[in-house]
Amino acid sequence: MTSNITLTASFAPSPNDIIMDNCGCGGSFSGSWSTGSSAAGRYGPDYRFASTIVSGSASTATYRPAITVAGYYSIYVMYPQGGNRAYSTPFAIQTDDTYIELAINQQANGGTWRPLVSQNRALEPGQ
Questions:
Q1: How far is residue 31's CA from residue 71's CA, in Å, rounded to a whole number?
Q2: Most exposed of 25, 53, 62, 126 (fewest Cβ within 10 Å)?
């Protein structure tokens, strides 16, 4: 090439991408949860959060994605960061052959997709 060109492109998620937010996606919430919309760094119009100071009750969010294409998936999380967020938020990921527990500091690195598991876990339809 000897001259500049203009290129226009539209990028869409892969048909295998599964994005689960807190509204109408099959997630279930137990314990004491609130909905907020003022913090920056959220994925959709609002977000769910659980207080770390509520005594006597654990709050749990469970997501079970509808896997329609078998394969290896990466799992990411996005959250609004803040000084009032938990510094050790527990995550548990169950695949057909593995159970993984890890903790994320939600006081830092919010507003971006953070990897929890890379593409080394096979997921099958119906899991």
A1: 33
A2: 53
pLDDT in tens, 101-125: 888 888 888 898 888 887 655 555 5
**Which residues in 12-127 belong to E strands, given as ranges?**
28-30, 34-36, 47-49, 60-62, 71-77, 89-94, 99-104, 114-123
pLDDT at 11: 61
Query: For residues 89 and 99, what is the distance between their CA atoms, to the nearest angstrom?
Result: 17
Whether residue 64 lies inside any domain: the answer is: yes
**What pLDDT does residue 20 have?**
81
Rounded Cα–Cα distance for residues 100 and 17 (Å): 21
Q: Which domain holds residue 34?
A: 28-123
Instruction: Kindly state the DSSP code that residue 111 receives in the 8-state scheme.
Output: S
Global pTM reads 0.69
4 lies in some domain: no
